[in-house]
Automatic annotation (TrEMBL):
Signal peptide: none
Organism: Streptomyces rectiviolaceus
Protein name, per record: Dipeptidase
InterPro entries: Metal_Hydrolase, Pept_M19
Domain of life where this protein originates: Bacteria
Region (Disordered): 1-55
Pfam families referenced in this protein's UniProt entry, alphabetically: Peptidase_M19
Bias (Pro residues): 21-31, 41-52
Amino acid sequence: MADLQVELNATAEAGELDPPSARPPEPPPISEPETVHEPAPEPGPEPGPAPAQDPLGRARALLRRHPVADGFSGLPWALRGLPWYDLELGDSAVDADVPRLREGGVGAQFWSVHVPDGITGDRVLGATLEQLDLVKHVVAGHSDGLRLARSASEVADARNCGRIAVLTGPARADAIGDSLATLRALHALGLFSLTLSGTSWAGPQGLTPFGEEVVREMNRIGVLAELSGASEATVHRVLAISRAPALFTRSGARALRDAPANLPDDLLAAVGAAKGLCLVPLAAEQTGSSIREVADHLDHVRRIAGPESVGLSGTYDTSAAHPEGLADTSRHPHLIAELIERDWPEADLARLTWGNVQRVLRGVDFTARATREREGRRQAAS
């Protein structure tokens, strides 16, 4: 597997091709021929402008400049059940491999370390640790195409080196139990985001005082708060107390489809006001069975939350059924082409695919640094 190669095309220098002495003598002047008056040609239609590039071609060109940062992949759990796989050459047993990620214009992907709901209690932490270890093993074994990243700068570095950045997370919140030390340990092992739902401290009634401490500690160490499926009380409280942007990795618009993880308009507006990010899933149950229905959700979230608060979540290699035409990660250009036909400005498309996720990653980095600096100043003053 060859590394990325850059071809340098030499350009010829401008100037005279031959010295004056090497040029042939100029021919003698030719007498003007007798003028012949030809009839004027019949007027015809004026030539029109050159044909514009088709929407799919424009979509592929845009994704070369602004690749997709895909907010949710279930690939680690899918790989656990395979006796053998090769993501570099391509593997039909999964929805995402390096060739199809490149064909789909994907530049970064969040690899979920969620474990199934049937795993409970102390087994959640053990299964999450196994998932973290598997992610490291898979990326190390496919280093020509993949690279682990834990910050905005590392994501950009991976892209500049021709690799697809892999960010680890989200994980289930009950993996940390009631322990901030476990949260810090998981972060040290590579965990980048945590879903704040389904625990005694983040449930239907919102965050307990300990839950608020979890959010503050996540801000301090640089773990992203993920809220898809969280209760409305939890969502509102996290948006109020978190200094870093919050993320919804699998949420469409409830006004268009009443699915559990989809957000009502008041929450979408609150996400936009808090500079959070709603990643719309390519999942038929949540956003419809066609590309047009998915685009309707993107239109709606963009209108209510704002163009800086909408992104894409493939939800590939999960149990979700995908809309027609979006069967695997290679199909992202077809969705972008649909948005081009809807006259989305290029600036908004660039935010949707790449810019908004980068903004959130930079926000998490900045908050963690600023929090640690404040702590250092307080300790120095005491």
